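Per your request, structure below.
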């Protein structure tokens, strides 16, 4: 897990599969996937992007690496994803 972004409004974490970790059910196939968790600190909700959503978000990050965005541009993008957030952030 790598924190990619942390501001007063948002946190973005890249969740990667644990390579070399023993599967819970070794007789079942395991799909190694990565995803992104976006937490909206203002609402206390989070959204997890995986599959094609994660790939699209990864493309956005790659574009940001080529052309550094302003914080406002990043926050505007994250706000669009945060609108999908339905899960309350729980500490356990």
């Amino acid at each position: 897990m790598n924190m990619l972004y942390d501001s007063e409004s948002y946190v973005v974490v890249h969740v990667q599969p644990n390579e070399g970790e023993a599967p819970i059910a070794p007789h079942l196939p395991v799909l190694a996937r990565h995803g992104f968790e976006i937490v909206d600190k203002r609402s206390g909700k989070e959204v997890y992007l995986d599959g094609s959503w994660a790939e699209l978000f990864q493309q956005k990050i790659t574009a940001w690496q080529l052309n550094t965005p302003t914080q406002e541009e990043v926050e505007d993008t994250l706000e669009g994803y945060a609108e999908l957030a339905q899960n309350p952030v729980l500490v356990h």
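Residues 6 and 78 are 11 Å apart (CA to CA).

Regards,
D.
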